[in-house]
Amino acid sequence: MAFVWWSAPAPVASIATKPVICSVRLRPCATNANTFGRPFRRGRSHDLFVHLPGCHPDRPSLEALFDDYFELMPAYQQVELEQLEFRRALFGILPAYRQSPLKPTWNRILQVGDSSGTQSPLSFGGFGALLRHLERLVTSLDEALRADCLSRSDLAWINGYQPNLSVTWLFQRAMSVGVNQRVAPNQINDLLSTVFQVMDASGDAVLKPFLQDVVQFSALTQTLVKTGWAAPGAIAPVIPQVGLGALLNWSGHYGALAGYSLLHAITPGVMPRLEALAQSSSSPANSLRLHQWRALLRYGSGNDYHGG
Ligand SMILES: Cc1cc2nc3c(=O)[nH]c(=O)nc-3n(C[C@H](O)[C@H](O)[C@H](O)COP(=O)(O)OP(=O)(O)OC[C@H]3O[C@@H](n4cnc5c(N)ncnc54)[C@H](O)[C@@H]3O)c2cc1C
Asked: Out of 3.30.70, 2.40.30, 1.10.10, 1.10.3470, which CATH number does the structure's domain 2-95 have?
């Protein structure tokens, strides 16, 4: 799975200064793309993201997609290309891993940031994700260093399973189209606008964490139920598009998200007992794992989010 992105800062006063996110359809097997415009102090950056569920020789080349980008930009930015003064054009491929966060491969080496795959495949907010996890990483690493628990399997606890990251894979899949798949031209747009309308109507408690890349069980469940109720026609075509296997796999992560949320809610009550149990054992690793497990429950259920 990969994102392909293009970015071109365009310092033109006539361009609206509000960030704009749109979803556009490119050529059939180029799948769906998101355009994303952001104002900066000395101009404006306009990005185009294409979500590809894997690479394939039949997909259009980066060069062909770059042509599409320039073709689409005037309509999405309401500006003629001749009016723009291009300062920099960037493009690249951002690989995203389904089994993320990535587990360490060697003793005493832990990857953090983009190389650890802690960011949601839905967004490109890797820096934000890194900042959110910083407290957990620093505390866990400090404890691991003090206890000299730095083997590959010890470190795997630090980059442990977080169901709220895993559930985002289905959303990413719903925004991409397979090489031989055909979907209605507006299917993905309709789905995205319905979901965002539902989240918007549900209030900040539902919308804001999602916009900041944090998926929580209660907000996700509300969104799914309300979207299914308000617009079953937008949800139904997604089932054949993503496939039954992906849906079943996702259900497991969704169930795990419910489990993490429940366990996170009850851990404060049982923590003192578990702590005493861990300390009575001779291995320092037990206490360490207990703390790491508690941190994973918090982050993996989105309970690290406190608004803002
Ligand atoms: C166009 C674009 C827009 C983005 N916008 C946002 C945003 O709005 N918000 C947000 O939160 N995130 C955003 N991101 C993502 C964010 O930039 C990354 O998630 C973040 O920079 C990751 O930091 P990092 O330290 O993990 O990796 P990097 O910043 O990639 O740092 C890795 C460093 O390692 C160096 N390196 C690589 N290999 C070697 C080697 N073999 N030896 C020595 N050095 C090496 C590289 O040169 C690089 O300096 C954006 C990314 C892109 C591309």
From this structure: 3.30.70
